[in-house]
Design a protein that fits this description.
Elements lengths: L14 H8 L23 H9 L5 H11 L3 H12 L4 H5 L1 E4 L2 E4 L12 H10 L5 E5 L5 H9 L4 E6 L2 H10 L5 E3 L14 E6 L14 H4 L15 H13 E11 L4 H10 L3 E7 L4 E7 L2
Parallel strand pairs: 3-4, 3-6, 4-5, 6-7
Antiparallel strand pairs: 1-2, 7-9, 8-9
Helix pairs in contact: 1-6, 2-3, 6-7, 10-11
Length: 295
């Protein structure tokens, strides 16, 4: 089965370097680097940069360069800039997001892959074998699955999501037959039960009452189902943890992204499900991941 040719960005780590770092035993080793974009060779209009900066874009120069790259005509550039100034996510405007050195296709309304989630991929790769069965649950665009496949092309990788829009987008980043639609484990083929070595999950974990405080890029342009984690943000995480042992192979691992504040409750859910649990945090990624192992 052929995989889509997800573009590897110039300047990003090679797959070999990515894999070498993923399996490094030293936890203090520098995290995966991503290509930040170079604007020095691009003549970007100062007025575009000024408009983006005035709209609150922290990386206005880099964003302007990407918009110029995406535009064919001055009129198209103006339209793209207006969309960005209005608060539309840059990744949706240009049609892709950078994740672990890959260009991941992003469509309107889907959850945009976050920089911090690369930490979960790094941890997953440290635990994976070349022949591991890997599942990206609540996959969104399928970015985590695509990154694992790029580093471990012989791994058996699958993805699933509840939202039809996310599934459609993920099927542009992964082989369509490897992406399933449905509610959590209900989406997965029965043949994976008890065989999953690595279960990666970036389930929604924003408490319902805090959605209104999110940046407009997320609040107004991403599906609520991809953001809302219930009253304390952990409704979906608890459901995932409760059934994980049925799907994990012996010695298999469940990895869920959470927040520092929520990590004790996430860990408790893992332990209640009978998993041997640890918590990993990266200051570089500002990311927290709870890991559970089926003993």
């Amino acid at each position: 089965m052929s995989w889509p040719q997800v573009r590897i960005l110039p300047g990003a780590l090679s797959v070999e370097a990515l894999l070498e770092m993923a399996h490094a035993g030293n936890r203090d080793e520098r995290p995966l680097e991503i290509h930040q974009g170079k604007t020095s060779a691009i003549d970007v209009s100062e007025s575009v940069i000024a408009r983006l900066r005035a709209a609150g874009c922290v990386f206005a120069e880099d964003e302007a360069a990407l918009l110029v790259e995406a535009a064919v005509t001055p009129e198209q550039l103006e339209a793209l800039v207006m969309r960005r100034v209005a608060g539309e996510p840059l990744e949706v405007i240009v049609g892709w997001a950078e994740f672990c050195g890959l260009r991941i296709v992003v469509e309107p309304g889907v959850f945009v892959p976050r920089y911090r989630t690369q930490f979960l991929v790094q941890l997953a790769l440290r635990l994976a074998r070349p022949d591991s069965v890997v599942v990206d649950l609540c996959c969104g665009t399928g970015a985590m699955a695509a990154a694992v496949h790029a580093a471990l092309p012989t791994a058996d990788v699958y993805a699933a999501d509840l939202d039809p829009a996310e599934v459609r987008c993920a099927r542009r980043n992964l082989p369509p037959a490897r992406v399933f639609e449905g509610d959590l484990y209900d989406a997965l083929p029965a043949g994976l039960r008890g065989r999953v070595d690595i279960l990666m999950v970036n389930a929604p974990y924003v408490p319902t009452d805090e959605i209104r405080m999110m940046p407009t890029e997320a609040r107004d342009h991403e599906a609520l189902v991809a953001l809302d984690g219930g009253s304390d943000g952990l409704d979906i995480q608890r459901r995932v943890a409760a059934e994980a042992r049925q799907w994990l192979a012996s010695g298999g691992h469940l990895l869920i992204e959470t927040s520092v504040r929520q990590s004790p409750a996430t860990r408790a859910a893992f332990e209640a499900a009978g998993l041997v649990t640890s918590v990993e945090h990266s200051d570089d990624y500002d990311s927290t991941v709870v890991i559970g192992r089926k003993s």
